[in-house]
Amino acid sequence: MPNYANVIVDIALEKLDRTFQYRIPKDMEDEIRVGARVRIPFGNGSRSVDGYVLELTDKPEYEESRLKEIQEILPAEIGVEQHFLELAAWMRETYGATMVQCLKTVTPVRRKIRGKQKRYVRLNVTREQAEACLESFKKKNARAKVRLVEALLEIQESAEGEEVSLPCELVTGKLNISSSTLQALQREEVIQVTASRLYRNPAVHSDEKRRPVALRESQRQIVEQVLADYRKGQHGTYLIHGVTGSGKTEIYIEAAAEMAAMGKQVIVLIPEIALTYQTVMRFYSRFGQRVSILNSRMSAGERFDQFERAGNGELDVMIGPRSALFTPFLHLGLIIIDEEHESAYKSETMPRYHARETAIRRAEMTGASVILGSATPSLESYTKALNGEYRLFSLTERQGGGALPSVEIADLRKELAAGNRSVLSRSLYEAICDRLDRQEQIMLFLNRRGFAGFVSCRECGQVVKCPHCDVSLSYHRDGRLHCHYCGYQTPMVKTCPSCGSRYIGTFKAGTQQVEEYIKKTFPEVRVLRMDLDTTRQKGGYEAILEQFANGEADILVGTQMIVKGHDFKNVTLMGILAADMSLMVPDYRSAERTFQLLSQAAGRAGRGKRPGQVVIQTYQPEHYAVQAAAAHDYRRFYEEEMGYRMLMGYPPAAHLAAVMVSSREESTAEELAKLLKERILFLSRENPVECMGPAPAGIAKLRDMYRRVLYIKDRDFDRLTELRKGLEDYVEQQPEFPEGSVQFDMNPMQE
Ligand code: ADP
Ligand code: ZN
Ligand code: ZN
After folding, report:
1. Mean per-residue pLDDT, 440-469
2. Of 645, 666, 701, which closes a domain?
3. SS3 530
């Protein structure tokens, strides 16, 4: 019987990131367990704090009489189960953070916070009346109303007359219904908005769920393979490389259903932005009340409720972004990660974990399988699949035979040579005219907003930057310069701050300039713009998508936001205005990122019955990322890019650790970074690693902190881990390093 508990103290001071030992009183012996939350005396004993039991042991660390007793076992909230503690320990070991930070990540909700009550939308009329309304809305061309009533009728149908409702956030968010439309329908008494219990799940519940689609042979084989392995006790990782529309989601649903039938539970991770109404509805109509979603708009209380339901065995499937990985399922059978290449799966706060790696770890610990899916797999995953570490499946055709869009590359250098200085190449201009004639919709995508609107000096070449963040300021229509990191603003400068020259101005177009240009060029055309500015207001994003979905605009101009998720069946032309923008980002992943963006953008066109067309405008038409995306040829991109990574020793050919040092004084940041570099060289003196820097970080100054970064490269991840620990110890001993001044990012992915 263990007599002692090693307890981690749950307060944010990182220096307390170690365990303290306490005696277990006799009357607690039966109840205490690893993961229990306990109250303990702390410091000189005059105050009490809460902690987690990390270990039970019969070996005292000190003389028995010096150990204090645990005061109380606190009620378990969402169980910090044994394996979550282990997972937290693994994250700490792998990514370099404190145990407290890791524990907070794996148990994100610890207090029941009374959140905003969740609201639901349901029909307030009979089915016949609803159908009559639908007809009149159609006549009036009230498309948002039509969409909502159709969706409500549809779920009612699958629920066989049982009363059903949709959560408000799903309606406004994913179905693109604005709150004014909701209010109008409420006034007309067609719908009702209710605040039912937080617990109630959105849609359908019925024994007779939506009839599953019959999987095609290529899909069925994948599901069968995964399940057959699972039943044999082989819990592997599978990568499905399938173009958009190739039927991956149906595979996820089928595999999840098979798991649920065995009493196993399933986590489905989706990047937040891709958490589309359509996808979620497909899961709802198959799993009814036994599926739930998490998203970042939920209050802590709502998340808590969903986690509690999962822990209680009320759910078979949880869908959500990165954090849904920590759903406390007791019988986890499968983790699915859709769009596995997305950088949203890498945390940008400590611990900087990657959800893919962490999912695979959780699956290993609990005997679950993992399915990864993507149209453009990450180099990491594809390499592992080729090595046989993951099992690879390929789906090369769109379901229903829809053709991939035709892609044309417009060489902007030739346009310039021909005297065309406008935003649109001649071929894109012609394609736009053609679509406008045929009354089909057009999307124009400009990547990297802000990057484009910078102000620079023609004489000295200096770019005007934010004094706080060292990123270029962008010129806006209000005549001012704005910082996109901290919000700093200043009037447009008249002379160059560096050399005093008057030849200063904006040179490249941002989304705003494109919008204006389009309006000038096509005066009758209705244009919408979607970027950070136009969506900043609450509901702005939804309002724009609703208008576009309703056909209230012919052209949607936007940033990355328009590339992902939403499907517009009437869009037959996608213009990519400057494919090079993301190639110029100083990051070794820029080609991969560009290929993904171009492929995704290309996938937006021609989702309906009419064929799609894509025009990619670029100054580098021969670049392999552009060429391969235009040819829909992933393999070609992979080969080229992998060659480059091997040559340069970048992941996944090698591993990379970023060591970030920050300080209010630039010279201090530099000095500390140099000290760390010396230490790295010292620690690896027997077998030197490659260490680059120190250099100013990508954002060299953020919120008045100067940032220097060192990169350590090595083929062996364990060596980097060892070095990281050596540095952590060193930093802790050196008083010149203040708390939090050094942070690690293993295989960083920032854009
Ligand atoms: P992905 O997730 O790869 O983009 P989806 O699973 O969404 O692809 O499939 C694209 C479309 O094809 C969806 O409308 C889906 O319902 C349909 N579909 C997929 N598989 C089948 C099938 N076996 N039979 C009929 N329709 C299918
Ligand atoms: Zn100048
Ligand atoms: Zn700033």
Report:
1. 72
2. 645
3. strand
